[in-house]
Amino acid sequence: MLGEHPSIKKIYEIIQRVAAAEVTVLITGESGTGKELVARAIHNLSLRADRPFVPVNCAAIPENLLESELFGHARGAFTGAHSSRAGLFQLANHGTILLDEVGELPLPLQAKLLRVLQDGTVRPIGTDHPVEVQVRVIASTNKDLAHQVEKGSFREDLFFRLQVIPLHLPPLRARRSDIPLLVNHFLDKSTRKHGVSVRITREAMIYLWEYDWPGNIRELENLIERLVLLSDNGITDLKDLPPNIRSYVSEKKCPHPTLGNGQIDLRDATEQLQYRLMEEALRLSNGNKSAAARMLGLKRTTLVAKLRRKPRANGGPFTLASEPEEPLSAFLAATGSVKDR
Q: Residue 326: is its pLDDT beyond 70?
C-alpha cells in the first residue's frame, strides 16, 4: 500500500488499530482502489499473520457452486460429489477469509453466512453435523450495501454484522497528490520485471494527473506497464498515452459546446470555456482568487461575481470541482520527483 494523502494516512491508522481486534471489517470502494491490499494488511498485522489468508471472489463463482465452495460438501451430497471436500471457511480455519464482492451473495447464502458469523460453525452440504471454525471475516464490495438493504437484496442483519468496522477507500481521483508516488512505484516495478528503463515527460505526467482514472490504481498500474513495454526510446511523451486519456483531458480542459436542435448555443459555449479557464486559474493559484484574477486579467471582484453566477448541477452555488489540497501547481512541483531512468 502506497500513499501520503491524508485520507490514506487515516486508513493506515485504522488498519493498525483494528488488526489485532477479532472483529469483522467491511471494506468499501470502487473497483481497483486496493480493497484486497487493505485486507491483506489487516491480516498481516494481526495475530493470525502466520495462518492462512483465503480470498474469495463471490462474483466469480457460479451461484450453484458457491455454497459448496464456501462451506464444503459430503460425498454423494449432489451429482458429481464423488468425495468429501472441505470448504474455504474450513481452509481458512484460524486465519482470515476475505469475502470479496460480498454484495453478490444470493439471499439464501446470506442467511447461512450470518449463521457462521453468529455461531462460528459451518455445515457442509449433505451433513447434519456443524463444523466449528475460528475464522476472521473481512468483506469487501464496490456496491452501496445500505442501498441494497433498502431494495431488499441484502439482509439488514448481515449488513450490520459485517460492518463492525467500516473502511472506505477513496478513488484515485480524490487523492491526486499520490499519483507521482504511484507512478514511480509502478515504473520501478515494471523496470525490474521487464529490464526496460522509461522516463515519463512532464507534459504526459500532467495528463496523468488530470485524468480521472475510473479503474483507479489497477488502471494506472496496467497503463504504466504498457508504456514501459511499448516505449521505443526510453521516453514516454503525450503522444504515447492512450487516446482515451488524451481525449478525456482535452475535453476536460476545453469542453464541447452544448448542442440544441442541431445548433450551437454560442452563449452557453462561451460560458463553459470561461468557467473552465477560471477553474484552471484557481487550481494553478491554489485557490487564491486574487492571484487567479491576475492570471485572467480580471479584477478580483469581477472573478468572484462570475463564480457566484455559476450554478452547480444540483442548483447550489458554484464550488471548485478539484480538491483544495490537490492543486495542479502542487503536482507540477511533485513531477520533479518522478525519476529519470
A: no
